[in-house]
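ok so heres the complex, two chains, lmk if somethin looks off
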Amino acid sequence: MTVTMEKPKSGMSDGVYEREELLNGCQAVAQGVCLADVDVIAAYPIRPYTEVMDALSKLIADGAFDAEYIIADSEHSQFEIVKHASSVNARAFGGSSGTGWMYGMEALTVTATDRLPPMFVVGNRALDDPGAFGVEHNDAMAVRDLGWLLCWVTTPQEALEHVLIGYRVAEDKNVRMPMALAIDGAFLTHSQHIVKIPSVAAAKKFLPQYDLAERRLHPDNPISVAPQANEDWVMEIRRQNWEAAKRARGVIKEAYKEFNAIFGERYAQPYFDEYMTDDAETVLIGVGTVAAPGRTAVKRLREKGHKVGYVNLRWFRPFPTEELRACLSRFKSVGVVDRDFAHGSPDNCGILMHEIRSCLYPAKNRPAIVNFIGGLGGRDLSIADAQKMFDITAQAAKKDSMDGYITWIGLRE
Amino acid sequence: MIKRVEVQYRGIFQKNLAKKIGSDIVMIASSMGQRAFSNGRYSDAPERNGIPCKYFAFVSPDLSEEELEAECGAKLEIDEANVSVVLDDTMCKGVEPWGWHGVRPINERVVKDGCLVVITKRPHEELLQFIGKKPYNYRLATLDGEASLAGLWVNKDDLTYEHVLGAIAAVEPTIISIEAVEAYLMKKTKDKKRAEAARAAYNSLRQEAKPPRVKTVTPNEGIVWTHEIPVLPKWFEMQEGAVVPAVPRGFQMGPKGQSRNTGFKRGTTKTQRPAVRFDLCTKCTLCWAECPDECFDPTTDGYYDIEYQYCVGCGKCAEVCPVKECIVMVDELQFHDNNSPWEDWKKDPKTYITSLEAKKGTERVNYPVVTGKGVIVTKGEVMPEGKIVPVRKTEEVEV
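and the predicted structre for the whole thing:
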C-alpha cells in the first residue's frame, strides 16, 4: 500500500519530473495551476488561501507563467469571474477560505448548475467565530450537495498533483462539474515540504486541453447559458447533474490510472488510501491532514500487536459509496473522525459520520461505528489523540449500548 | 365535493384585486361553515406589468382543510374551475400565464355547466369571437364594467371587488351566498354601499334579469383554438448545463424581418395595442428605438411596422411619438388579427385609415396604473390624411 507522504518514485532523469522545491500547500497549488496552464485566475484575499494568490501573482510577475490575473472586489465577484471565464472555454481558477467561500455561495451554486468545470482551492478555515482562522471542514462541505467535485489532500505533493487530476476529471465531457480542492488551513496551506515538480511535457501529456465544445459561449456558437428555468425545467436539469455526478466516479478511476502510468505508481486506490488494513479489526477514517497522526498511531499500535488500520478518504464528492462500503464492512469497528460539525443532526454526529453511516446501512456486515469530533478551529489532533480514538473504537465492537458513540477529542473538560 | 374559483387577472395591475377576491371568498365560505383556502400562482412571469396571471380559491362543505389543500393546493395549475372570473375582457383572446404552456383559451379550465364571468361592456357574441370552443355547455356571464387596473402597491376602490363577489354568488351560490357576502361586507366595512354593490351585481346576473347577462354557450359557439401546447424535451434530450440554443440572429428589412423567440411571445399581455397612422409618420425612429420589446420592424420605405404578437402594449411608442394621432393606444378587442399594419396600409391606404379611425374612435383611454386613480379619457380627433401636427407632451406624470 502506498503511503502518500512518500515521494514520487520516478527520478528527474526520465523527464517526468523537472525539479524539487520546498513548497507549502498554497505554493504547491500555485505550481499546479502553472503546470495546468490555467488561462484566467480571479483572486480575493482571505487567509489561509491568500498565499495561493500571492504565489500565483509572483509566478506571473517572475515571467514563469502567463495568465489573466484579475483581483476581484469580493469573493462573490471572484467566483462569478471564474464561472464566466469557464463558460467561454478558458481554464479558470479561484479559491477562498471559510466565510469568504460562504460569501460567494450564490455563484458557487450556479457554477454547478451551469455544469462548468473551473477549479477552486479551499484553504479550510473555521466559519468565523470571531476571527478564527484555524482549520475546520464545514466551509468546503457547504458545496457537497450542489453538484461539485470535492476532494481533500494531505501533502503539498498531493496538492500539486490534484490540481492536474482535478482539472482532468472536472473537464471530462462526461463530467463537467466544478472542482473544489480542499487543503487544511495551516497544517497543509502553511506546511512546507520538498515537492517534486512534474515537467511541463508530462503535465501536458496527462491533462488535455480544456474543450467545452458545444457549450462554449462564443459568437460562433450562439447559445444562452442559464436562462430562466422554473417548474417546467428544473427537475430535468437536476436529473442531468445527478447523472454527471454518477459518471464522475468512473472518470476519477480512469484519471488515476493514467496518472500512475505517467508519473509512476503514486496512488494505489483512486478514492481513498488504506493503510495497514489488510488484517485490521479496528480502523479510523478521516479526511485531510489528520491522516498523518492517524497513520503514525497505527504504526505504533501495530508494534504493540494491535490490529489497527487507517483509511484516508480523499474524494468526498462523488462519494465512493460501493468501494467504501466494501472496504469498511471488513472491519469489526470503525471510528469516524470529523473535523466539522452538524449541530442538531441525527445523534448530533459530524458530517462525515452521517455519510459513512448512510453508506454502511445496506452493507451485509455492518461494523460497530463511533464518531469523534475534534481538531475544530485548528486545534491539534495528535498521535496520542489518534491512539485514544483507536482505543475507544476497539471498545465499541464489544458494546451494545450507544455509550461513547460520540467523543469530543481535545476538548477542555 | 370541491368548488374551485379561478380569478384571471393582469399582472401587477390587478394583483391586489385578485388576491382580495380570493381571500374574501375564503372568509365568506368559512362564515357559511365550509372549508376553504386561496392561493396565487405564477411561473415564468413573476407578475410583470399586464401579464395574465391567476389567483384561486377552493371551497368544500365536506373535506378537511388538509384534504382540500392536497387536492387543490400542491399544484401549479388547477385542473378545473366551476367559476372562472376574468378581470379584463381583453384576456378573452387567450392567456399565456405560464412560460412554455403556450397561449391557452380563457375558458380552458371551465367545467361542464360551469361559468366564465367576464367584466366587460361587450355582448356575449362579441366575446365569443375570441373564446375557444368547448365540447360541452357552459355559461358565459358578462358583468357590466371596465377593467379595473391599478398598481402593485395600491388598491383601486371602484367596487369591482364587491361586484365580483356578488357575481360569484349569483352564478354559483354554493360557493358563497349573496346573504353571506352582504353580511361579510357589512361586518368588515360597515359601509352599506358595498353590500349594495354586491347585491346589484348579483341581481344583474340572475336568470330573470333583463337584459339576460348569463348565456349558455353550446359546443358550436366560439372559435377553433389553433395555438398548440409546446412539447418539452425529456431530461436526456436537453443540452446539459441549462444551455439553450440562441434564437438565430437574423434581420431583413420589412414586416416580421427580425428573428424573435417563438417559444414565448407575450402578446397576451396587452390590453391595448398601438394603432399607427403611417400617413402621419415622419420616420423619426423614436418608436423603433424606444420599444422595450423590439417589436418594430423597419421597412424599405423608411417606416416602422409592428409585430403585434410580441407587443405587450406598454404604450411607450405612443408616448414618444411626436406627431398628433400618429400612434394611439387602442382597445385590443377591436382587433381580430396580428397582421402587419404596414402591409394593410400599403395594400389600401384609404380603407386602412378609415377602418383604423373607426376602431380608435375619438376617446383616448389612459390608465394611470401606478396611482390606481382610474381611467383618464381625453378627446382625440380624426386627422386628415397626411396632416402632420407636432405634439409637445408636457403633461405631468401623476405621483
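quick notes: The mean pLDDT of chain A is 94. thats all i got rn
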